[in-house]
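CORE FACILITY INTAKE
Project code: CF-77B
Contact: R.S. (postdoc)
Sample description: multi-component assembly, three entities in total
Requested service: structural model of the whole complex
Turnaround: standard
Below are the sequence entries exactly as provided by the requester. Do not edit them.
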Amino acid sequence: MNVVVAEGDDEVVHLEVVGEGDDDGPAAGTAARTVSRDDWPGEVARTEAAAHLDGGHVRWVWDDTSRWYPELLRAGVRVERCHDLRLAHTILRRSTSSASSDLARADPGPWDVAPEVGEGAEEASPSSTPSLFEQWEAPPPRPERPDPLAELALQEAALRSAGDDAGRLRLLIAAESSGALVASELQHDGLPFRVDVHDATLTRMLGPRPARVGQRPALLEALAAQVRDALDVPTLNPDSQPDLLRALRRSGLDVTSTSKWELQRSEHPAVAPLLEYKKLYRLLSANGWAWMDQWVTDGRFRAEWVPGGVVTGRWATRGGGALQLPKGIRSAVRADDGWLLVIADAAQLEPRILAAMSGDDAMVAAGARGDLYAGLVEAGVVDTRAHAKVAMLAALYGATTGQAAMLVPRLARAYPRAVGLVDAAARVGENGGVVSTWLGRSSVPPGEAWHAAQSAASAPDATPDDERRARSRARDWGRFTRNFVVQGTAAEWALCWMAALRRRLASLEGDAGVPRLAFFLHDELIVHTPGAVADDVAAAVRDAGREASRLLFGPGAPEVPLDVVVAEDYGEGGDADALPVIDDE
DNA sequence: AAGCAGCGCGCC
DNA sequence: AAAAGGCGCGCTGCTT
């Protein structure tokens, strides 16, 4: 049963019950209802409960999960399933599988706008002066009230037009929508974060919190003084890149930037304190006391999670830098008393996804015993694990120089199907084409500037510079599409994993409470759980991983090994293969 | 004063 | 002397 949620005005919500659905019969008492805004969470809860009594399911169809679900969560109401029309629209509009549908061919409309920022977002501010672009172009589409029922019908038609690909697209949309529910829940529930532990870390690393904002903590100030001494510039502000670069060069360092990798190659007494200064400065500016005050409330770190925020289908976040939580401060992520964290990581996900989607049985076999990189060594493809990793990542990202130049061809000989798949995706991109993930999320075509560069190079009066630029842009886009198919399919696996886990967690309620997803990071997740059911959660995490592989690749799908740790804090450890590659032979 | 580009670096 | 995909974010210093 679908219930289409449409806004009436500020006071009321229209609910249109639609019997249509994949596996549900017609709904009893199909009807439209209008409920007051205050009553609607209760109405949602009653509808869910009634459906479950019948052994059925409700799918809430709404324009934008982030607009409706937060207020349900605040009222203590959770839903099992939804269909997020905006996210589905983006997928269907771009997918080459539904390119001939009315939905894909229509002019951009209200469903093509970016999501609103934040809960109860502020009204759009009237822009002061229209840009030149806005003056010349037609005005942007009127913010007419989108009609969810009409959009749902368009989406159903688009899915029907996809023929054999419809099943995969339906799975993708279901997973994307489930992800939207998770995203709202993650923001609502938050990640348990101990400010006392974090403050202790900051104090140990930086010195006590300065009394004044903008004042350097003591240890940072001491390092700044060492840098000034070593460079003999008493007034140097090490935070200013231009000033710092000038001072470095005056002191005889042969550097063209102030970046870490370049400094590390220089021998000078200023280098060590400067690198330490930069490290601590980063900690202070990105995750210092101000960050903690702003983003940690009531013992929870809360970020805004943005499903589909990356073109490949990965999530983005807004605020707090949730996807960049440095390893060094993760010990502050601690379970509540009596609770535990279940921390799970899909090992070497992207290479395994590539092996599975390309049907490269040899590469699947190399990963079957656990460590895929070790498997490459055992198979005699490369001589060391480090080389295996460099070769694999080079194939995924399109590196062509350095060690990759030697290693990738060996990989291609051993695994022609896998390497062939990403090479083919790269060629499509180099030619300005569009590629798609396993479930059918398609890449956006290159923009106007890209085509302009290509035309310039093929013009009769093209200079060698034009040609070089065009080739470079083409290769750039090829690396993007090369990676898109794998990164995007890995994101689909992760969405399915999370959706399958979410369903399992709902049935694991213990006396002390319900285990909740608390964090998600591309191929890694954290569940905050009552200690008594932590082992059940760990098992559910593994089961969900197997389900994700089956959903994407069918019954014989290769397994993605999971590192699952039950712990009190997020602490040290984690993925041993985290990027970037350190290429010191 | 506010917006933006580039840099640098954190994460996967 | 850089290199290979996707991001977010804070900072400086420039422009408007």
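Facility notes:
- Residues 241, 257-260, 278-279, 282, 286-287, 314, 321-327, 349-350, 487, 521-524, 575, 578-579 of chain A lie near DNA strand B (CB under 10 Å from a C1').
- Chain A has 22 helices and 14 strands.
Invoice: internal transfer
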